[in-house]
Amino acid sequence: MAREDIVSQIETFLKEMKAPKLGKVQRDPIDPNELPKTAFPAVFLETTDEDIEDVSLDSLRRGEMLVNVIAVIGGKDRDRQRNILVDAVEKKLLADRTVNNTATHIALTGVESVQLGESAPYASIRMVFNVKHHYKLT
Question: CA 73, CA 82: separation in Å to the nearest integer?
Answer without folding.
Answer: 7
